[in-house]
Design brief:
The structure holds 2 protein chains of 2 kinds. Chain A is mostly helical. Helix content of chain A is 79%, strand content 0%. Chain B is built from 9 helices and 14 strands. Classes of the chains: A mainly alpha, B alpha/beta. The complex binds adenosine-5'-triphosphate and magnesium ion. Adenosine-5'-triphosphate sits between chains B (11, 18, 20, 38, 40-46) and A (218-220).
Chain lengths: 224, 303
C-alpha cells in the first residue's frame, strides 16, 4: 500500500515538474499519456525484474539447486511464478489508473480490449525478464542488469519516438495508449503486437533454457 | 541402484581445461553406505553434482533405479545434501523451509506440515522451528540442510561432507541417522575427509584419484587387505633384555610391545620367545582407513 502511495506521489511530482517546464499542454492529453507511460513502465519493470531478481536471490541462497533437485524445470518455474503474481500486479495497476486518472482528470476509456493489450504487454515483459534472468544465471551481475532494464524500459513506453517504434514493449504500450485514450487499434496493429509478443517471449524462453544448459555444463548452476 | 557408468567431465574456460573425471564408474546399492573418498579437488563434489543433474557430464551415463536424468521419476529417487550451509530460504523459518520442500515435492499441505515437524523433532531443531533460518548456528543449518535433503523420504541419499561443522553429539546423531537409513534399505553415497567417519559408517569404500575410481571394495575387504601384521603385546613384567629376532618397539615401562611380523605364522615364534615373560594381553592392530587412504592416493604434493 505504501508503495502505491509513493508511486502516486512520484507521479504527482513528475507532472509538477513537467508543467513547470512547460512540457505539458493544457488539454490534459499529454498528462494522460505521461500517466499511461509511467504506469506501463512500472508494470514492465516489475515483471522484467521478477525472474531476474529471483534467479539472483535463489542462486545466492543455494535454493536454485534445490529447485532443480525437486524436479522443477527452471524455466517453467519462473514463468509460473511471474504469471501467478501477474494478477496482483494488474490489480495494482488498475487501481493506480483509476485513482491517478481521477486525480489528474484524465478522460480514460475503459474497454475490454485493454485486457488483451495488457496481457500481451505483460507477456513481452516476461520474455524480456527471462532474457535478463538468463544473463544473471551466467554472469550474476544483478545491479547492472537492473539499471539497464530501467534505462531501456521507461523511454520505450513513455516517449513516442519513431526510433523506438520496434522496441518490443513499444508495440504493446502504443496499442494500450490508443485504446485507453478512446481510440481503436487496427487489426494490423494487433497482428504486429501479437507477433512481436510471440517472438520476444519465445526468444526469452529459448535464451533462458540455453543459459540453464550452459550453466550446468560449466558447473555454475547455483554458484554464487 | 545408482549406476554411474564411464562418466567423463572436464571444465573448460577460455584459459584452460581441467579434466576432473576421466572415466568414473560407480554403483550404490540399496542398504549400503558407500563412502566416496579422495583428496581435495579429486572430483567428489563434481561426481555428486553430476548424479544430481546440476552438472552435465561430457560423456557417460547415470541412472537411478533404471531412470535416467530427464525422466521425471529420476529426481524422486534421491535426495541430496550439496552444501551444508546453503540451500535454505534465510528469511523463512526451519518449519516453513521444510514444509515448502515437501510441498514442492508433491505432498499435501497437511502431510508436509506433519513431515516437517517430525524431522525437526528428530534432528533436535524443534526449539528453533519458528526462528528465521538466517539466525541459526552453522551446525543447526547443517542439520536443517540434512533434513531438507531427506524431506521427501527418497530411496537414495547423496551427502557431500555431511558432518562438516557438527559438534560431537550432533555428528554422532547424524551418523546414527545415516546408519539407520541404511538399515531401513536406503542407499547412501557420502563424501568426507574424516576417515573415522568413513570407517565407522561405510560398508563400501570408493577412492577417487587422478580422475578415476582407484579402489572400490567392501570396507571389510579393504581393511583386511591392508590389515597390518602388527601385534600389541602387554606383558605382566618388564622385558629386561631384547630377546626378539623380529622388528619391534617397546615403551618406556618395557611392558608394552609392538611387533611387526612378516607372516602371520611368526606369531608362534613370538610367543615362544616371550615364554619367560607372562603375557597379559595380545591383540592384532587394526588397519586404519586413513593410512590406507594415504597409501592408495600417494602422489607428489604441490604446495
Ligand atoms: N565450476 C567449475 N569450473 C571450473 N572448475 C571447477 C568447477 N567446479 C570444480 N572445478 C574443479 O574441478 C576439480 C574437482 O573439484 P571438486 O569440487 O569436484 O573436488 P572435491 O573432490 O569435491 O574436492 P574437495 O575435497 O575440496 O571438496 C577441482 O580442480 C576444481 O577446481
Ligand atoms: Mg567437495
Amino acid at each position: 500500500m505504501l508503495s502505491l502511495v509513493l508511486i502516486g506521489f512520484i507521479f504527482y511530482l513528475l507532472v509538477g515538474f513537467a508543467r513547470a517546464a512547460g512540457a505539458l499542454d493544457a488539454s490534459g492529453v499529454q498528462t494522460a499519456k505521461l500517466l499511461v507511460g509511467y504506469l506501463l513502465g512500472l508494470l514492465a519493470v516489475g515483471i522484467i525484474s521478477g525472474p531476474a531478481m529471483q534467479v539472483s536471490r535463489e542462486a545466492r541462497s543455494g535454493t536454485l539447486e534445490n529447485m532443480v533437485l525437486s524436479g522443477q524445470g527452471l524455466t517453467a518455474f519462473f514463468v509460473v511464478q511471474v504469471l501467478a503474481r501477474l494478477w496482483l500486479s494488474l490489480l495494482q495497476f488498475g487501481l493506480l489508473f483509476a485513482v491517478l486518472g481521477t486525480i489528474f482528470g484524465a478522460n480514460f476509456v475503459f474497454s475490454w480490449q485493454l485486457l488483451p493489450a495488457l496481457f500481451l504487454f505483460s507477456l513481452t515483459s516476461l520474455g524480456l525478464g527471462l532474457m535478463a534472468g538468463a544473463v544473471i544465471l551466467l554472469f550474476k551481475e544483478v545491479s547492472q542488469i537492473f539499471t539497464l532494464v530501467q534505462l531501456l524500459v521507461f523511454p520505450a513506453v513513455i516517449v513516442e519516438l519513431p526510433q523506438l517504434q520496434w522496441f518490443p514493449l513499444t508495440l504493446g504500450a502504443g496499442v494500450f495508449r490508443k485504446l485507453i485514450l478512446g481510440g481503436s487499434a487496427a487489426p494490423l496493429e494487433w497482428a504486429i503486437l501479437l507477433l512481436g509478443t510471440v517472438v520476444v517471449y519465445s526468444l526469452g524462453v529459448y535464451l533462458f533454457q540455453s543459459a540453464d544448459l550452459l550453466a550446468r555444463k560449466k558447473g555454475l548452476l547455483g554458484h554464487e | 541402484m545408482i549406476q554411474v557408468e564411464s562418466v567423463e567431465k572436464a571444465y573448460t574456460s577460455r584459459k584452460n581445461t581441467v579434466r576432473v573425471l576421466e572415466r568414473v564408474s560407480l554403483e550404490v546399492r540399496p542398504g549400503e553406505v558407500c563412502a566416496l573418498l579422495g583428496r581435495n579437488g579429486s572430483g567428489k563434489t563434481t561426481t555428486i553434482r553430476i548424479i544430481c543433474g546440476l552438472v552435465l557430464p561430457d560423456a557417460g551415463r547415470v541412472s537411478i533405479n533404471g531412470y535416467t536424468l530427464g525422466e521425471p521419476e529420476y529426481m524422486a529417487q534421491f535426495g541430496a545434501l550439496i552444501d551444508t550451509n546453503r540451500g535454505l530460504y534465510p528469511r523463512l523459518s526451519p518449519l516453513e523451509n521444510l514444509q515448502y520442500t515437501c510441498m514442492v515435492r508433491g505432498m499435501s499441505r497437511q502431510a508436509a506440515v506433519e513431515r516437517a515437524k517430525h524431522l525437526l523433532e528428530e534432528l533436535g531443531l524443534w526449539d528453533k522451528r519458528n526462528a528465521p533460518t538466517q539466525t541459526l548456528s552453522k551446525g543447526m543449518l547443517s542439520k536443517l540442510a540434512f533434513a531438507n535433503a531427506i524431506a521427501h523420504d527418497p530411496p537414495f541419499v547423496l551427502l557431500d561432507e555431511p558432518t562438516l561443522g557438527l559438534d560431537i553429539d550432533a555428528a554422532e546423531a547424524l551418523e546414527a541417522q545415516i546408519r539407520q537409513m541404511a538399515q531401513s534399505g536406503k542407499g547412501i553415497l557420502l563424501t568426507t575427509h574424516q576417515m573415522e567417519v568413513a570407517e565407522r559408517l561405510a560398508s563400501r569404500v570408493a577412492i577417487l584419484s587422478k580422475g578415476r575410481i582407484a579402489v572400490d571394495r567392501p570396507k571389510s575387504e579393504l581393511m583386511a587387505m591392508f590389515a597390518r601384521q602388527t601385534y600389541r603385546v602387554v606383558l605382566a613384567e618388564p622385558l629386561l633384555e631384547d630377546i626378539l629376532p623380529m622388528a619391534h618397539s617397546l615403551d618406556e615401562t618395557r611392558t608394552v610391545l609392538e611387533v611387526s611380523l612378516e607372516h602371520p605364522r611368526q606369531i608362534y615364534e613370538l610367543m615362544d620367545k616371550l615364554r619367560p615373560a607372562p603375557i597379559k594381553h595380545i591383540e592384532r592392530l587394526e588397519a586404519d582407513l586413513g593410512e590406507i587412504f594415504k597409501t592408495l592416493t600417494k602422489e607428489p604434493h604441490h604446495v
